[in-house]
Amino acid sequence: MTSAIDALTPTPIAIPESTLQDLRFRLRATNWPDDDGNEDGSYGVPQALLRDLVQYWAQEYDWRAAERAMNAYEHYTVEVSGVRVHFMRKPGVGPSPTPLILSHGWPWTFWHWSKVIDQLADPAAFGGDPADAFDVIVPSLPGFGYSTPTRPDMNFWKIADVWHELMTKTLGHQRYAAAGCDVGALVTGQLGHKYADELYGIHIGSALTLDFFNGDRAWDFTGGRPIPPGLPDEQRSRLIDLEHRFAVHLAAQMLAPSTLAPGLADSPAGMLAWILERWMKWSDNDGDIFTVFTRDELLTHATIYWTGAAIGSSIRTYANNNRYPWTPTHERTPAIEARTGITFVDYENPPGISTSAERIRSFLNSDRAGWYHHVNITGHPRGGHFIPWEIPDQWTDDLRRTFRPLLGAAPDQPEHHR
Fold first, then answer.
1. Does 364 fall in a domain?
2. What SUPFAM superfamilies does UniProt report for this protein, alphabetically (predicted)?
């Protein structure tokens, strides 16, 4: 039987050699500023680290090898409501694979899902049950990767509308599953809010509320609140560390993306520095980024941003999340009615929370829990912000645990794991 995807024309990734030559030229021509006193990274990305990566990117990095690895999967580029969407696909291998769409975050790319896509599509090849197979769709978010250019007003809840049309109209699925992390978790949460009846369920990393970017001071991670007096030293240090991770990221990208974008879009070294700092600070790497990403892996993600001309449009989504604030499409509770699985990692625990068990209890006692119809919550002691990249086996297990009962008779009794 012919499926909707059979009617699409594959579009393998094939970056022109002229684009790569221009990239190498710009890298070699980098105008380096003074960076005295920053050997410890206290002023930002240490220049010695950045220079090493830039030199390797210009002289040794092999994009064509990365391209071949990506093209081992199916790639398509389609128009959905006038929005250009690139997606990667791995057909499911099993008796009845479930359609699953995976949404990445920032500064992620679609390739951050590369460590889980094979396990999800063909579990039997990894010693699993073929009944757990998914037909895996991995798009580049509009304005990211190769889903460029995009509309200037694109944000997370508008992306959810694009995803739903992609899955139901373009690809012809009556129901599907969805999962995501970071901004992709908000996209996925919006799917679970607006389109719950057409989803089997969702699985997300973290569990932000959908109004996270609403308000006059959404760019301030603290919400303008002062540090409470009398906090134990450990909690105060943890709170400041969290603020340092996100303050410049949220403020710059939400308040002035068009000021930042020209420099990042003109200088690959500048672009790499901006996104590298997030990979360094947000991953669970014990102070060594290369325990999470190899040089080639870092530069593959960076090259996707560069060759897709995506850095400017990707950072603008932050401003648009605030400029076009989320509003509910219904007033029922929970707001996210789709059955939801959640993965937490201890690296992102808030101040005063030390273990996965404490993180789960804290979430269940918070007002955030009431947003979700949660059926499976898991915490892990290792892994950082890039969960499916950093702990792919655990993420895959968590997701399967969420969806197994939902694809049959879904129970309402939630499960908590640590």
1. yes
2. alpha/beta-Hydrolases
Q: How far apart are CA 153 and CA 384, in angstroms?
A: 30
Answer for the pair 288, 183: CB distance below 8 angstroms, yes or no. Answer: no
Q: How far apart are CA 312 and CA 26, in angstroms?
A: 18
pTM of the predicted protein model: 0.95
Q: Quick check: is 182 catalytic? A: yes
pLDDT at 413: 55
Write out the residue range of the structural domain in which residue 261 sits: 4-14+65-417
Tell me how many domains the chain contains.
1
Answer yes or no: is 52 within a domain. no
Question: Considering 182, 284, 346, 398, which one is annotated as catalytic?
Answer: 182
Specify whether the CB–CB gap between 392 and 116 falls below 8 A: yes
Q: How far is Cα 261 from Cα 274, in angstroms, rounded to an integer?
A: 11
- Does residue 34 fall inside a structural domain? no
- Taking alpha carbons only, the member of 88, 75, 87, 91 closest to residue 125 is 91
Which residue of the set 73, 76, 176, 318 is catalytic? 318
Give me the long-range contacts of 243-247 (CB less than 8 A, separation at least 24).
244/281, 245/281, 245/282, 246/221, 247/220, 247/221
Where residue 418 falls among pLDDT bands split at 50, 70, 90?
Answer: low
Contact 270, 26 (CB under 8 A): no
CATH number, domain containing residue 180: 3.40.50.1820
Q: 267: closest CA among 312, 206, 222, 204? A: 312
- Give the mean model confidence (pLDDT) for residues 110-118: 98
Q: Is 288 exposed, middle or buried (0-12, 13-18, 19+ CB in 10 A)?
A: exposed
HEC string of 92-137? CCCCCCEEEEEECCCCCCHHHHCCCHHHHHCHHHHCCCHHHCEEEE
Lookup: tokens for 346: 């201890």
- Of 200, 374, 385, 398, the active-site residue reads 385
Q: Please report, as a single letter, which amino acid is at residue 12.
A: P
Please tell me the distance from the alpha carbon of residue 341 to that of residue 206, in angstroms, as a whole number: 10
Task: Convert the pLDDT of each residue in 234-244 to its tens digit.
Answer: 888 878 887 88
